[in-house]
């Protein structure tokens, strides 16, 4: 069983300025829950109870969210408002949390490498809280089943419009069936005319621990950053990466349009 899940949460969230000037973008709420809580809940449902977070400056609110707030809880104890804390209390009690800091923002690959001290020599999940996913079964729970079958790195993918491929890591390879592809090529943020397909990697991964040594040997890529896509290409060349078309819906909450779409979607579910 995969027990650990890594959350890279050190980014600045510049697309949401000034809202993110003094608060983490991962704490922006969709209805009454912050984005990071949706992600941790998904990890816990997949059996990943060891939550490892790579944070940065001005991210203290994330640590505080997954901790007891004695003054608040004392004030609302016994009232109807106390029920509003039941779910976060459950996550606090169920999971174990550890944190380390990414001193310099040098890309997702660098954030994952920074998390090695928390992960150790174990396969692990990676969730990007910007991508809010929902479905009958959690995306990470689905991916665990894929990992159990193939015993290699798993990336979640979905089709995107061709004019948007430059926003994503794009894969191509040998289709095993309609939902699984053995990856041969991975390109980070290609121009539309250079993209090998329109299958885009979204913010869900299961990685094997050898990724850390590969990342150490991987030179900076797109935008001068250490890209996990480039490191995964090394494993894909050895047939050790499976792309999985997940069952469910994803919202790009790193964009204003996606954030509003997610808010409206979850609000309608309440009615």
What's the quick description here?
This protein has 271 residues and is of the alpha/beta class.
The quaternary structure here is: single chain
- The low-confidence parts are none
General shape: globular
Can you give the mean pLDDT?
Answer: 92
* Helix/strand class: alpha/beta
Strand line-up in the sheet with most strands:
8-11-9-10-12
3D structure, described in words:
The chain has 271 residues and is α/β, with parallel strands linked by helices. The chain has a single domain, classed as Spore Coat Polysaccharide Biosynthesis Protein SpsA, Chain A (Alpha-Beta Complex), CATH 3.90.550. It is built from ten helices and 13 strands. It has helices at residues 35-45, 60-65, 70-76, 86-94, 108-114, 116-119, 139-150, 211-217, 228-237, 256-270, and strands at 4-8, 29-30, 33-34, 50-55, 96-101, 124-127, 131-134, 153-159, 169-175, 180-188, 199-207, 241-245, 249-252. The strands form three sheets. A five-stranded mixed barrel has the order 8-11-9-10-12. The chain has a two-stranded antiparallel ribbon with strand order 2-3. A hairpin with a 4-residue loop joins β9 and β10 (180-188). α5 (108-114) crosses α8 (211-217) and α8 crosses α9. The radius of gyration is 18 Å and the shape is globular. It starts with a strand and ends with a helix.
Notable traits:
271 residues; alpha/beta; 5-stranded mixed β-barrel
Itemize the secondary structure elements and their pairings.
Blueprint: E1 4-8, E2 29-30, E3 33-34, H1 35-45, E4 50-55, H2 60-65, H3 70-76, H4 86-94, E5 96-101, H5 108-114, H6 116-119, E6 124-127, E7 131-134, H7 139-150, E8 153-159, E9 169-175, E10 180-188, E11 199-207, H8 211-217, H9 228-237, E12 241-245, E13 249-252, H10 256-270
Parallel strand pairs: 1-4, 1-6, 4-5, 8-12
Antiparallel strand pairs: 2-3, 6-11, 7-13, 8-11, 9-10, 9-11, 10-12
């Amino acid at each position: 069983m995969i027990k650990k899940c890594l959350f890279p949460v050190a980014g600045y969230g510049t697309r949401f300025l000034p809202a993110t000037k003094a608060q983490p973008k991962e704490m922006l709420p969709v209805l009454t829950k912050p984005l990071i809580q949706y992600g941790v809940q998904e990890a816990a449902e997949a059996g990943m109870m060891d939550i490892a977070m790579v944070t940065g400056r001005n991210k203290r609110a994330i640590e505080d969210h997954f901790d007891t707030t004695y003054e608040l809880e004392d004030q609302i104890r016994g009232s109807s408002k106390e029920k509003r804390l039941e779910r976060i209390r459950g996550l606090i009690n169920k999971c174990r949390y550890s944190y380390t800091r990414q001193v310099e923002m040098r890309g997702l690959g660098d954030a994952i490498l920074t998390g090695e001290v928390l992960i150790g020599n174990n396969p692990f999940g990676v969730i990007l809280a910007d991508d809010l996913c929902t479905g009958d079964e959690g995306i990470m729970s689905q991916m665990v089943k894929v990992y159990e079958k193939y015993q290699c790195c798993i990336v979640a993918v979905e089709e995107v419009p061709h004019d948007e491929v430059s926003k994503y890591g794009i894969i191509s390879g040998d289709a095993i069936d309609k939902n699984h592809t053995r990856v041969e090529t991975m390109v980070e943020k290609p121009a539309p005319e250079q993209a090998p397909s329109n299958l885009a990697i979204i913010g869900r991964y299961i990685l094997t621990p050898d990724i850390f040594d590969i990342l150490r040997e991987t030179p900076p890529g797109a935008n001068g950053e250490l890209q996990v896509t480039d490191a995964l290409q090394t494993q894909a060349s050895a047939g050790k990466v499976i792309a999985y078309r997940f069952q469910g819906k994803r919202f790009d909450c790193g964009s204003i349009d996606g954030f509003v779409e997610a808010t409206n979607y979850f609000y309608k579910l309440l009615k």
